[in-house]
What we know:
The chain is built from 3 helices and no strands. By secondary structure, it is an all-alpha fold. The protein has helices at residues 4-14, 21-44, 49-57. It has one domain (19-62). Helix content is 71%, strand content 0%. It is elongated.
Amino acid sequence: MVTAKQEVESLLSKLPDDCSLEDIQYHLYVIEKVRQGLDAADSQGTISQDEADRRLDKWLTK
């Protein structure tokens, strides 16, 4: 299991040396949101692509 510190160290090693604190905060925010989405998918389940297409069909123009 990767610790939060290890995850931040990995992120920092991938960012350019001249990145801003805002850049770092943004990337941490995105990582957290992706993690929350994956956790929600695990606990609440997901839908198939066909079901997503069916639900979105009324909103999409062709």
